[in-house]
Amino acid sequence: MEGMQAETSVKGRLNWLLRMPPEVERAEERDFGAERVKHLRHAIIVGLIVYNIYNLTSLYLMADIQPFTVAMRLFVLVPGSLLIFLLVPRVPPAIRELLLLGGMFVASLLPLYLLYISQSTYASYTLGELPLVLLFGNMLLVLRFRFALVFTSVTCLTALWVVHNKPGLDENLIFPLTVQVVTGLFFTLYGNWHVERQRCLTYLAQYDAENRADRAERRGDELRDLTLTDMLTGIANRRHLDETLDTWLDRRGEVLLLMVDVDHFKAFNDRFGHVAGDDCLRRIANALSIFAARHDGFAARYGGEEFTLLFPVDLETGGAFLADRLVRTVRELAIPHPARADGLTHVTVSVGYAGTTDGGLRDARDLVTRADLALYEAKSAGRNRSKAG
User: Fold this and answer.
1) In principle, which of 99, 240, 369, 378 could form an S-S bond with 236, CB 3.0–4.6 Å?
2) 28 tagged catalytic
């Protein structure tokens, strides 16, 4: 059922002239425009070679105007075709297709004109060349169907006019030639319609499939982000922290880990309520995230009112500097906290930090444990400060 619905959706976006929605046609041009240009240039050269072979047939079928037929092909059709050959890769797609249509009109109407003015008794045999010209335009160049329809219709009407109005044409040939012209041109147009329809349906299905895949990938990325993001604060969560810490430790570079705890947060919640408490955590998380980014670090919510930050520096070089500056950064937020029992009136944090050492154990659990013990020491020493582990 799903496959049938998808096929109906694809066909429903293709009008009777086999035009796809503009955005799809632009996408197809981006994907296959260069390939079409390459194909057209090859086809033009092949067409020129074959078309000029008819200079030999006109020697027998239009002997009365043979020099003129050769001149028209060599000095009108050949230069025009070479000009199109040069312009095809240099003009916009719409102009490119119109150039092809114009070139095919010259290629089809010129022989009809020569047939009309020739007085040779064999001239009518050159009408057999016409379906071949249509075959070239509709099936080898593969004119876009809307252009193929115009090209075939105009050529067919012109050919019928020539057959019915050419002076001296045997009346017994009019009906057979009419049938040959109409059926021959119809089949080339039908072939073009079939090929063009299949091209459009195939690309529409591909375009829709790629869009569905892109949407699925974006949705997957969004879901992955949700699994790695703390829903309250919007920064990384514990799972993301664990993955990042393991990655950093595997790279063998220096890693500094800071455990951060909001001082007297229970008292803050009891005084202002959980809504205010959540807002407080969000403000602190935002400040920590900015702080981490400024120093090429990583910030995550560890759980409750605890946060963890990682930095690619060693303990001696950056430990005390980063930890003390982080304590000051939160203090400068000046979030009121009148429920504290230690005499301070604003929200502060305590920080414990630990880092990797040369030749030491590079274990995530060990690093967190040492930083956590240092955090306990900072809180025992009066909070609003940092300690090394």
Assistant:
1) 240
2) no
Query: Measured between alpha carbons, how far is 325 from 163 in angstroms, rounded to an integer?
Result: 95
Q: For tokens 């070139």, name the residue.
A: 103
Domain count, the chain: 2
Give per-residue burial for 162-176: e unless 16+ CB within 10 Å, then b. Answer: bbeebeebeeeeeee
- d(CA 177, CA 125) in angstroms, rounded, equals 10
Phi-psi region of 142 (alpha: psi -120 to 50; beta: other; left: phi over 0): left
Residues 176 and 89 in one domain: yes
Q: Are residues 53 and 87 in the same domain?
A: yes
Going by C-beta distance under 8 Å and a sequence separation of 6 or more, which residues neighbour residue 82? Answer: 48
Of 28, 196, 254, 305, which residue is the catalytic one? 305
9: pLDDT strictly greater than 50 = yes
The predicted model scores a pTM of: 0.64
Let me know if residue 84 belongs to a domain: yes
Name the pLDDT band for 174 (thresholds 50, 70, 90).
very high
**C-alpha triplet 196, 199, 201: angle, nearest 5°:** 110
Per-residue pLDDT of 260-302, as tens digits, reads 999 999 999 999 999 999 999 999 999 999 999 999 999 999 9
Classify residue 221: in a domain, yes or no. Answer: no
Residue type, 164: H
189 and 295: one domain? no
Maximum pairwise Cα distance, the chain: 119
From residue 271, how far is each of 334, 339, 343, 349 by CA, in Å?
17, 7, 16, 18
CATH of the domain at 336: 3.30.70.270
The reply to whether 243 falls in a domain is: yes
Q: Please tell me whether residues 151 and 251 are part of one structural domain.
A: no
Per-residue pLDDT band at 359 (split at 50, 70, 90): low
Mean pLDDT value across residues 347-372: 90
pLDDT > 50? residue 341: yes
16 and 126: one domain? yes
| Token reading at 113 | 């004109």
Does a structural domain hold residue 184? yes
